[in-house]
Amino acid sequence: MTNTTTVDDFTASFLAVLDHFYRNSKNSSRLIRMEDRIAEDLEFDSLAALELLVTLEERWNVTLVGTADVVEIVTVADLHDLLLRSFESEDPPETLFISGELMQQFNVRASCRRTLE
């Protein structure tokens, strides 16, 4: 993100990218909201979530896949905040080996939160 780009500009762009990705992957015209849960509301499985992360990485030239914080993503707002933090970070992100187990944790964590609500 450049110095002249505001958070509002970024948020609009982020939502546009997410909306485009969602429409193409789910063939739906559903409006994406920041409070939407990625696994439950948007119905992204672990593969779709990984594809979304890679799409965002390519769009903004950041590293998300493999970062320790990626397993904490539950909502669109969580993803947005992680992306914003990646711009502010001066240090390279702490990376983890991406395994099927790690991607499964993304879905398990979301399922646990849904059960507790």
UniProtKB/TrEMBL annotation:
Which InterPro entries does the entry link to?
ACP-like_sf
Gene3D superfamilies named in the record: ACP-like
Q: Tell me what this protein is called.
A: Acyl carrier protein
